[in-house]
Amino acid sequence: MDKGDMKKQASRFYTVMYRTRRFEEEVFEFYKRGLMPGLAHLYLGEEAIAAGACGALNDSDYIASTHRGHGHLVARGADLNRMMAEILGKATGYSKGKGGSMHIMAMDKGILGANGIVGGGIPIAVGAAYSSKLKQDGKVTVCFFGDSATNEGTFHESLNMASAWDLPIVFIIENNFYGISVDIRSVTKENQLSKRSVGYGIPGVTIDGNDVFAVYDTVKTAVERARKGDGPTLIECLTYRWQGHHVGDPGTYRPESEVADWRAKEPIINLEALKLLSQKEIDAIRASVDAEIKEACIFAEESPYPDVSEAMTDIFVA
């Protein structure tokens, strides 16, 4: 990639990451004001993973998300107004206010939904990839999940099936080191989680999840491999969440020095340090995004709640 292309990519990545950052900051503000029902699991500090990975996809590809899923939707180009409205439980939201933060989805963007169950999105993603292989539609599914999900049975069963059938899927571990308050390094013998790919005969790689270009390049290679019919890849992205597990968790179980170290190497600062964008260009991106987020907040706050008559609609029981 020449410098001109890198500059264009940097502008796109910076926009997505800053948009995600500002969206999450305003979600946190709504929570503190008591306007958000339930809890939200913020993506602050992890923005490079969603920006880089989604940048490597075609518009027709699929994504399976997690309970920490806002960043995936933002990076995929979901409607910010409908996203914020959904988080506030409003009728104008993506799921008419019934899904909220942990079950937010955007089928129009190929997003199969966030999932409140740890590891719950992994078999859904494998199902999507299996359908693509059967239909030969050329689509690839990217599945995001956290470090603790790699200790769930769904992870191992899904990797086995995807590997055995060479499904067009890319598994991305967003390793922020903590599953709620449990340090993943204290409950696994091998701390490099990508090595778990060896048992399933697929490629596995660990990268700096705060380096958006590294994420983009690695995911792009894996997506191209999957699209050619060569099967899945397991990518471990090392990153760090700034806040506790959710907005109500102070996160005091983490050493202050560790938090400080990771905040010093966060993805937006990393990208600015490359000097691909001038301060004027950065300021312009920030001003534009700030206006978008302000509009989304006003839209969400002014939108109506669902009528009580809607309580039993859009409910499906198998």
List keywords for this structure.
five-stranded parallel sheet, 10% strand, 318 residues, two-stranded antiparallel ribbon, 10 helices, alpha/beta
- Hey, roughly how much beta strand do the residues contain? 5-15%
User: How many beta-strand elements?
Assistant: 7
In helices, the fraction of residues equals 40-55%
Helix-strand pattern: HHEHHHEHEEEEHEHHH
Shape estimate: globular
Counting DSSP H or I runs of 4 or more residues, the number of helices is 10
Instruction: Please state how the strands of the largest beta sheet are arranged side by side.
Output: 1-2-3-7-6
Low-confidence stretches: none
Taking the sheet with the most strands, its summary is: 5 strands, parallel
Structural class call reads: alpha/beta
Q: Kindly report how far apart the N and C termini lie.
A: 50 Å
Q: What is the residue-averaged pLDDT?
A: 96
Instruction: Write down the Rg.
Output: 19 Å
Can you walk me through this structure?
The protein has helices spanning 3-32, 47-55, 70-76, 80-87, 121-135, 153-164, 212-227, 256-264, 267-273, 279-302; strands spanning 62-64, 141-146, 169-175, 178-179, 182-183, 204-208, 233-238. 43% of the residues lie in helices and 10% in strands. The protein is built from ten helices and seven strands. The strands form two sheets. It has a five-stranded parallel sheet with strand order 1-2-3-7-6, sandwiched between helices. β4 (178-179) and β5 (182-183) form a beta hairpin. It starts with a helix and ends in a 16-residue tail after the last helix. The protein has 318 residues and is α/β, with parallel strands linked by helices. The model has no long low-confidence stretch (mean pLDDT 96). α1 (3-32) crosses α2 (47-55).
